Amino acid sequence: MDAPALWRSMINGDQSAFLELYNEFYQPLYAFGFRVHGNAQLVKDCIHEVFCEIWSGRATLPLVQQPRAYLFTYVKRKILKEVKVLSINTDEVVDTQHGIEQSYEDMLVSAEQDAEMKTKLQHFMSQLSATQQAILRLKYYENLTYEQIAAQLSLQPRTVYNKLYEALKTMRQCLRVLLLPILLAMA
Amino acid sequence: MDFKLYKAEDFAADESFIRYFQQSDEQDVQFWQNWIRCNPDRLTEIITAETMLARLLGHIPQQELEAEQARMMAFLAQQPVEQPPVQPLNIPPAPRHMLRTVLAAAVLAGILIAAGLWLLSGRQRQYTPLQWTSFSSAPTQRTTIELPDGSTIQLNASTHIRYAQTAAKDSLIVALDGEAFFTIARNDKRIFIVQGGDMIVNVLGTSFNMSYYPESGKSRVALVNGKLKVVATSPEGIILVPNEAITYHAGQTTLSKATFDATTELGWRENKLYFDHADFPEIALQLKRLYNITCINRSKVVNMQYTGHFDNVGYKQVVASICYANDLRYTTANDTVFIQQ
């Protein structure tokens, strides 16, 4: 079933369709939410609340054609509202007008729970050239194709690919030691 | 394009593979799920690629995701169970009445089961941690394990192995720490992989000796009969034929084959200890594994070497012979041997 069909079943009270939507969109929503605000717990809470509100209020929900866009907007609003409340309570100045997006590098590092991995990632990022960092961001954050990235940076698509490949190779070296236990646990 | 030659970096840079990982394209998801199933020997590269992508895409770690899913299940369980307005025939009413009457404890159990089923079904990532079965042999002890299919694994002293079935159900992966002799029944349908550090051996119905010592980062495999594929530096791997062996040190970039002497290589199976131009770290490693003795070199001799063999003797005799050959003395204290001038 595709997303609009799942949405329809969900509105009609089908819990498994609701769970399928949740499973399908959780990771993209989390990655997106993290760009809106860099507090993992807050993002998780907001996504949880959004899904709770959707399930509770399913009878009054519209039949949307683009559940993905609907969910993204919903989560973004939720996070911004939450941040506003937080900033009033804590007197923290948060410029919601101009967004509170953090840099891609900061996002990657702050997403990491493990302290050792944090250091490794920081080390990895510091080894990359400015172009390589930009390519990583455009590829994995903005989700652009090699052609689009090439056009934006005035490079050949092949060059973009090669630079990205080099960055990934560096990343693998940096993470190598820490990856091993994961591999052994999963292999 | 031959994906079999792909390394983790290639997968992580491949647009189709990224779409599979993001689950944004059904065709890519199906293609890669199928490909991974058919190529279990590429599993480590795939998992490495997925681990890198999870970081680059800012994904939530699996454990936290499961915690969030459990949280959602708990929320759903609290919600009043109501008749779905459009699909009245979907669920028979009886179970719902029962659900209302069960006790809180039973509801909690239900949540856990539902969460479990939910985690198992649907669009979960394929690599849930596998169930490993472990076997160890103590220092000075040798053990033989028999697998359900009649294959046997003979473990040298202080050896630890774990084995698990891979995602492609009929395949086995064995992780080795120490030394073991494998006699594996031929089965063309199954894939049998032994991993010793960075060296991965794809078993094609054989008997062979393999060792991996994390202390020295050295992996070695010696084939007695049958056929083996060894992968360490390049994904293509090298095919071994009987009487050939490969040694691999962590970080090495090329692999080369050599013939081996079966008496030396397999001597441990008859309680013999062989040294062939063994240096101090090698000697210390063997003494630790075999006798649980820590050997410390306090002499100024850094390039000591020993060639020779021992037939079922105690550690003191081994140390005495090595010291004699290098013109050194030794003292013992508890489980430690000090080698001196």
Automatic annotation (TrEMBL), chain A:
For this UniProt record, the keywords arranged alphabetically read as follows: Sigma factor, Transcription, Transcription regulation
InterPro entries per record:
RNA_pol_sigma-70-like, RNA_pol_sigma-70_dom, RNA_pol_sigma70_r2, RNA_pol_sigma70_r4_t2, RNA_pol_sigma_r2, RNA_pol_sigma_r3/r4-like, WH-like_DNA-bd_sf
Record-annotated RNA polymerase sigma factor 70 region 4 type domain positions? 120-171
User: What Gene3D superfamilies does the entry give?
Assistant: 1.10.1740.10, Winged helix-like DNA-binding domain superfamily/Winged helix DNA-binding domain
Q: Which residue numbers delimit the RNA polymerase sigma-70 region domain?
A: 21-83
Superkingdom: Bacteria
Q: Which NCBIfam families match?
A: sigma70-ECF (TIGR02937)
Q: Which PANTHER family match?
A: RNA POLYMERASE ECF-TYPE SIGMA FACTO, RNA POLYMERASE SIGMA-70 FACTOR ECF SUBFAMILY
Family, according to the entry, reads as follows: Belongs to the sigma-70 factor family. ECF subfamily.
Q: What is this protein called?
A: Sigma-70 family RNA polymerase sigma factor
Tell me the classification of the organism that encodes this protein.
Answer: Bacteria, Pseudomonadati, Bacteroidota, Chitinophagia, Chitinophagales
UniProtKB/TrEMBL annotation, chain B:
Residue ranges constituting the FecR protein domain according to the UniProt record: 136-228
> Which segments cross the bilayer?
98-120
Q: Which domain of life is it from?
A: Bacteria
Enumerate the spans annotated as Protein FecR C-terminal domain: 272-339
Fetch the Gene3D superfamilies from UniProt. 2.60.120.1440, 3.55.50.30
- Asked if the record carries the keyword Membrane, the reply is yes
Under InterPro entries, the record lists:
FecR (IPR006860), FecR_C (IPR032508), Ferrdict_sens_TM (IPR012373)
**Keyword Electron transport: yes or no?**
no
Q: Which UniProt keywords apply?
A: Membrane, Transmembrane, Transmembrane helix
Please give one Pfam family short name.
Answer: FecR
What is the native source organism of this protein?
Chitinophaga rhizophila
The name under which this protein is listed is: FecR domain-containing protein
